[in-house]
Amino acid sequence: MMKKSLLGALALGLATSTSAFAQTEIQWWHAMTGANNDVVNKLAEDFNASQKDYKVVVSYKGQYADTLNAGIAAFRAGNAPHILQVFEVGTATMMGARGAIKPVQEMMKEAGEKFDPNAYLPAITGYYSTAKGEMLSMPFNSSSMVMWINKDELKKAGVAEIPKTWPQVFDAAKKLKAAGHDTCGFSNAWASWANVEQFSAWHNIPMATKANGLDGFDTEMKFNSPQHVKHLQNLVDLQKDKTYDYSGRDSKSEGRFTSGECAIFLTSSGFYGNVKANAKFDWANAPMPYYPDVQGAPQNSIIGGASLWVMGGKKADEYKGVAKFFTFLSDTDRQAKLHQESGYLPITKAAYEKTKASGFYEKNPALQMALIELTNKEPTENSRGLRFGNMVQIRDVISEEIEAALAGQKPAKDALDTAVTRSNQILRQFERTVR
Amino acid sequence: MEKRAHISGWTLPLLLILPQMAITVIFFYWPASQAIWQSFLREDAFGLASEFVGFENYVSLFEQPEYYRAMVTTAIFSSLVAFFSLACALLLATQADKNIRGGQAFKTFLIWPYAVAPAIAGVLWLFMFHPTLGTLSKPIKAIGIDWNPMLNANHAMTLLVLSATWKQISYNFLFFLAGLQAIPKSVIEAAAIDGAGPLRRFWTVIFPLLSPTTFFLLVVNVVYVFFDTFGIIDAVTGGGPAGQTTTLVYKVYADGRLGGDLGGSAAQSVILMIIVIALTAIQFRYVERKVQY
């Protein structure tokens, strides 16, 4: 195996060295590790083998934040890559830098590449489009938040059905705790993404004004509504005896589900591969829970993950290569295969339909869950997506205040009020830099 | 009669100090002046638009309660780490300085942790003390402590102090050991003949003679805690819970690199620079007087 790929690389090297004169190099900086890194490499390899004029060169630049910073630093130094993978919370930062980026839709048009924005899943592209619907970046790895369930433990605790609503989850967690899960009835990763961002969209309540920032950078946070406060207060109450137990701001504690400690765990649908490989019990995933007394809930979820941004100031010929690569990426068969193998969401409607028609989801219902949530209802202005400047910082602020409430330092209402005030300051700061 | 070499003209002396000057200018004065300049600007992350805003970044910084909290956290964190890393290293060095079997091996092992990158040190400790996965958190829980650094600030701080201290002990150990070996045996033997016990010998003879090393290490350790610990903080707590382990340097990193607020971050680093210069000056002015060279 090793030898074969080595030979392949050698052959590729020979092939490229002879045709180096004619080839245009396309730099693609990404943040994927492990199995996802192999996907990126394979895509580039396949594309390079499929034609002779362009060569996609991939480089790993560290975690999401590192990759974004590497791209920014390179842009400032005048040698940005052609394609930069940016996580969803970096979207506003990229959008704000109009001189630094090339909108995907505009680039496709200029390159004369066939491109129909309606071919893509609106639940996904909406996050990366302007208010008018112009696609700014190409979705790459998308996921959403789902509830992971340890069916064996639920059965042992006497919970007959997978809970659908938050009150049912609380009940189930109490039963789980009584049945011996005394350190964790239920939990979630990504404190802010779960309890504020997804929570708002799923209950069709605004996280902020101006369609959560999609309609303008003069957006103001509103996530201290009675519903938000009530949910956080519930978590605070349950934290006291660990019926709910906090698992941090990121995904580092996802192991609490696979180890069996937490039998109900909300995290990314991208957790699939890990669960499949490591969970030694009967598992399933389900839609996020909701409060039945909130009108219109559940609405639809929003995505997470990353998209590919095209950097500005490159040659027309190079953009042509990028456009060809994006067409290659959007190909129905390729998308369907990518989705089924890697667990990423398909970005085109055709790829979703094709996978559905093939009966794939009957055998792998876990892979469809995020799509069911995303397309549950026609998105409203509260559930199309989020666009906040300096969102990375805002997420930290929100998580900090959630932690303060859970640790009993301040009431839930105070914590969310403070988080809103602090986030608004950050938003105003950002607004002034993009003007 | 003292022999003196006379160098005529300025060319040679200038040439000789030029490399050192170049290094200082390129690696210190230039970035420092850039930081000062940037602290007066408001800029987007890509540097496409920048605006001179005077002291606005500083003003908004001092309006944040979080900034004052970071100052207090830094004071607590740095005194704890400096004290424990110096104390433990001194204890280990005095013990390793004795004639014991396998002394060389001990010394080598004690120096090893210094070769570990701060972030890796952080992750190692994080795994050991992780509330649910950690090997050491189980015994802690068994003795009745509800160990949870993810929500309990004191636990998080303990964990940070442990890992930052552990990381720095080797360095201090090395210098203390060298310092101990430089103390003439005759002085200690003289004290012993006069009837001073080991403890008394240590406090009245060895410790004062070691004071130049201790002083040097104090300065170095304070600078270490102020600047080099953000890797550990990032890996272990990410500044949490609720921002209660966010030190000044971690806030610089979080606001600038993660948050993209370059002006505010630059203003913070300028303030940090002033604090460290002031601290070092105080140490040299007041503590050094008590040091016997």
TrEMBL record, chain B:
It is a multi-pass membrane protein. The chain crosses the membrane at residues 12-32, 67-93, 105-128, 205-227, 266-287. InterPro entries: MetI-like, MetI-like_sf, UgpAE/MalFG_permease. Keywords: Cell inner membrane, Cell membrane, Membrane, Transmembrane, Transmembrane helix, Transport. Residues 71-283 form the ABC transmembrane type-1 domain. The complex is composed of two ATP-binding proteins (UgpC), two transmembrane proteins (UgpA and UgpE) and a solute-binding protein (UgpB). Belongs to the binding-protein-dependent transport system permease family. This is sn-glycerol-3-phosphate transport system permease protein UgpA. The lineage of its organism: Bacteria, Pseudomonadati, Pseudomonadota, Alphaproteobacteria, Hyphomicrobiales. The gene is ugpA.
